[in-house]
Amino acid sequence: MKYVLMFVETERFARELEAMTESERQAAFERVGRWFADHAAHITHHAHLQPAETATTVRLGDDGPVVTDGPFVEGKEVVSGYAEIDVQDLDQALAIARAWPACPVVEIRPID
Question: What protein family does this chain belong to (predicted)?
Fold first, then answer.
């Protein structure tokens, strides 16, 4: 089964990351790198997204599409990256997501 894991940063997580010393931040990035290495057999693709303020949004409506700079909604949680995984079942996807060492929210969605 294929799933996408969406890594969601909260405002609190972003503040904590910003408050870290350079060595603490480097250690956090190394933990993420180890997670990717540990699960490489199941990860088919992954990417880190640019910050939400770099987004361009297309809003579809009755008056036609409207293009704006910035995210679609202002939120306290923002998807910062994703990984596509190929695993046996949702239980295995959950086990991989539970091991994620960074942002506090991981959304798991099946891929058609």
Answer: Belongs to the YciI family.
Domain span at 101: 2-110
Put residue 70 in one of left, alpha, beta given phi > 0 → left and psi -120 to 50 → alpha: left
By CB atoms closer than 10 A (0-12, 13-18, 19+), residue 77 is middle
Q: For residue 48, what is the domain's CATH number?
A: 3.30.70.1060
Encode burial over 15-52: b for 16+ CB neighbours within 10 A, e otherwise.
Answer: eeeeeeeeeeeeeeeeebeebeeebeebbeebeeeeeb
Number of domains in the chain: 1
Please write the tens of the pLDDT for every residue from 76-92: 788 999 999 999 999 99
Residues across the chain? 112
* Residue 53, amino acid: E
